[in-house]
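Human: Here is a favour to ask of a fellow structure person. Comparing notes only helps if you start from a blank page. I am asking you to supply a protein in sequence and structure-token form. Write it directly below this note and I will take it from there.

Assistant:
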Amino acid sequence: MKQVVGMVVSNKMQKSVVVAVDRLFHHKVYNRYIKRTSKFMAHDENNQCNIGDRVRLDSSRPLSKRKHWVVAEILKKARIYTPPTAPVSANVTSSSSTGTPTP
């Protein structure tokens, strides 16, 4: 069975992800290597993939009109930024000492 490795670019669907797979090929006229990207829809049974994850895909039977791949394994999880949350302090009495009534 064929296997490809790519990066998850979309996970907005239920149990499906879109994976971008890059490949290099040699252009004979320009004598250069050119990068081409193909996007594949893949089945993600447990909705574990996030945007930026590096995954390995296995080919499978057609699961829908455009979905012919299954996520076999997540090779590397993406680092997701979570903003720091400010701790809630019990400093409520200092706001009432300003003399303004609280509603």
Residues 92-96 form the longest helix (5 residues).
